C-alpha cells in the first residue's frame, strides 16, 4: 500500500479533526411541539410560531385553557378547551377537521381573529382599478361589514355599491371607486395594507386554521391528508404547524365511515392537546459550508 507523505497525513488529520469538532457542535433549537392524543392514536406537530405567532398563541391558550380565563382569574381554573372534542368532518384524500365545541362545524370559542397567510405588503390607495384589488378590498373591508349586518348594509354608499355588484354579478362596479371612499363610508381610519408574499403553502401534513372566510379564525383546525397538498387553499387558511409523526393516524381518521356532512359515524375523540417546548439538534449551516 502506498504511504501518504507526512504533510498529507497532517492535513488529513486536521481535516478529520475539524469535521469531528463541527459534528460535535450541532446547534440545538427550541421548538414547540403539540401532541394531539386521539381515540385512534397520537399525532405530533411542530408549531410554526415564527410564521404565525398569533395563531400559535391562540392554539396554545385554548389547549391549556388559559385563553378563555377572565382577567385576574386563577390559572388553576383553566379548563383545556380541546379535551373531549371531536374530529367532526373528515374527507379521504383531503383533510380531517376538529376543534368545534358544537361538534358540527358551526361553533367556536366566542371570538375571531385575523389570518396570518401573507407578509405585509404596500398600502392600497387610490382608484381600485382592477379585479384583483377589488376582490381584496371587498374581502378585507366590505365582507366583514356585510356579515355584521346580515348582508344588508345600513350605509347608503356601501348598499348601493353592493347592489350594483349583485346586478353586474361581478366586481366591475368597484373599479372606478377609490379605496378612500370605502374607508370613509365604513369609518375606517387605519390604512389598508396589501398582501406581500405567501408565508406557507397548504401542503400535505400541515396544520391549518379552518374559517368561515377571511379573518374569522377561532378554534377549528384541520390537517391536510392529500398527497401534493391543496394549492387552491393557499392564502385562504393560516398554516401554523407541520406533522412530525402520526400521519398514519391522521390518514386513518380520514378514512373512517361517515354520514351527512362528512361526520364520522363513530366519533373520533380528541382526548387532549398538550404543547411542550423541546430542544432539537439542527445543522449549523455556517460551519458546514466552511
UniProtKB/TrEMBL annotation:
<keyword id="KW-0697">Rotamase</keyword>
<feature type="signal peptide">
    <location>
        <begin position="1"/>
        <end position="25"/>
    </location>
</feature>
<dbReference type="GO" id="GO:0006457">
    <property type="term" value="P:protein folding"/>
</dbReference>
<protein>
    <recommendedName>
        <fullName>Peptidyl-prolyl cis-trans isomerase</fullName>
        <ecNumber>5.2.1.8</ecNumber>
    </recommendedName>
</protein>
<comment type="function">
    <text>PPIases accelerate the folding of proteins. It catalyzes the cis-trans isomerization of proline imidic peptide bonds in oligopeptides.</text>
</comment>
<dbReference type="InterPro" id="IPR002130">
    <property type="entry name" value="Cyclophilin-type_PPIase_dom"/>
</dbReference>
<dbReference type="InterPro" id="IPR020892">
    <property type="entry name" value="Cyclophilin-type_PPIase_CS"/>
</dbReference>
<dbReference type="Pfam" id="PF00160">
    <property type="entry name" value="Pro_isomerase"/>
</dbReference>
<keyword id="KW-0413">Isomerase</keyword>
<keyword id="KW-0732">Signal</keyword>
<feature type="domain" description="PPIase cyclophilin-type">
    <location>
        <begin position="37"/>
        <end position="275"/>
    </location>
</feature>
<dbReference type="InterPro" id="IPR044666">
    <property type="entry name" value="Cyclophilin_A-like"/>
</dbReference>
<dbReference type="InterPro" id="IPR029000">
    <property type="entry name" value="Cyclophilin-like_dom_sf"/>
</dbReference>
<comment type="similarity">
    <text>Belongs to the cyclophilin-type PPIase family.</text>
</comment>
<dbReference type="GO" id="GO:0003755">
    <property type="term" value="F:peptidyl-prolyl cis-trans isomerase activity"/>
</dbReference>
Amino acid at each position: 500500500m502506498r504511504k501518504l507523505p507526512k504533510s498529507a497525513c497532517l492535513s488529513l488529520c486536521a481535516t478529520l479533526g475539524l469535521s469531528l469538532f463541527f459534528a460535535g457542535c450541532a446547534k440545538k433549537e427550541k421548538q414547540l411541539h403539540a401532541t394531539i392524543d386521539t381515540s385512534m392514536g397520537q399525532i405530533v406537530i411542530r408549531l410554526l410560531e415564527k410564521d404565525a405567532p398569533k395563531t400559535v398563541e391562540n392554539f396554545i391558550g385554548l389547549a391549556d385553557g388559559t385563553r378563555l380565563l377572565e382577567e385576574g382569574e386563577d390559572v388553576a381554573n383553566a379548563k383545556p378547551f380541546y379535551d373531549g372534542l371531536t374530529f367532526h368532518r373528515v374527507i379521504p384524500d383531503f383533510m380531517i377537521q376538529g376543534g368545534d365545541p358544537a361538534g358540527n362545524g358551526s361553533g367556536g370559542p366566542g371570538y375571531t381573529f385575523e389570518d396570518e397567510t401573507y407578509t405585509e405588503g404596500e398600502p392600497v390607495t387610490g382608484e381600485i382599478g382592477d379585479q384583483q384589488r377589488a376582490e381584496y378590498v371587498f374581502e378585507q373591508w366590505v365582507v366583514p361589514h356585510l356579515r355584521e349586518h346580515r348582508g344588508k348594509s345600513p350605509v347608503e354608499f356601501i348598499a348601493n355599491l353592493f347592489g350594483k355588484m349583485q346586478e353586474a354579478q361581478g366586481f366591475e362596479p368597484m373599479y372606478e371607486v377609490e379605496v378612500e371612499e370605502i374607508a370613509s363610508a365604513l369609518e375606517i381610519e387605519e390604512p389598508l395594507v396589501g398582501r406581500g408574499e405567501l408565508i406557507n403553502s397548504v401542503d400535505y401534513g400541515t396544520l391549518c386554521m379552518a374559517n368561515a372566510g377571511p379573518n374569522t379564525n377561532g378554534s377549528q383546525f384541520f390537517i391536510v391528508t392529500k398527497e401534493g397538498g391543496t394549492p387552491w387553499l393557499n392564502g385562504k387558511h393560516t398554516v401554523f404547524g407541520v406533522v412530525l409523526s402520526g400521519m398514519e393516524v391522521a390518514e386513518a381518521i380520514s378514512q373512517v365511515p361517515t354520514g351527512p356532512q362528512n361526520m364520522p359515524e363513530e366519533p373520533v375523540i380528541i382526548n387532549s392537546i398538550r404543547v411542550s417546548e423541546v430542544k432539537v439538534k439542527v445543522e449549523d449551516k455556517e460551519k458546514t459550508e466552511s
